[in-house]
Task: structure prediction
Amino acid sequence: MKFLRALDRFFHKIEFGLLVAFLGSMVLLAFTQVVLRNFFGTGVVWADTIVRHLVLWSGFVGAALATSEERHISIDALTKFLSARTRHVVLIFTSTFAAIVCYYLTAAAWEYVLEERLNGGELVLGIQTWVALLIIPSGYLLIAFHFIIKAIENILSTFTKHAEAR
Result:
């Protein structure tokens, strides 16, 4: 249990750092574009494309971070009326189901990236399009990882509390 929490915290710190870097880069590039266009009548040709992809990367890393903090979208109106043990069981089920869905989304996204690699398109500055799209399967995999951690934590806490009650 301690190992899983430590691993979850480790990924949480990395995701937070990446998110700060991506958001900072987006703001800096967008601001630079505005200044260059308004005052100098020019701009950086590749900046808008990079900003669009940074939005994609920020979205997936942010979703993984939200899942880690249990701040992802959920409907918890009914769980408020459940007992603590039943709530843990429901959370185990929903976290496991979400992890399975993310697994299938990871597999589909991986196929998409492989297709893009075969197409051989270039994004900007020599960066292949498929490299920029690696965040899609990686993001879903990170989200699945956090859901699995949450499911395991709920399993362990349910059985630990159940064993203590006996």
Q: What stands out?
A: Residues 98 and 147 are 7 Å apart (CA to CA). Residues 2-165 form one domain.
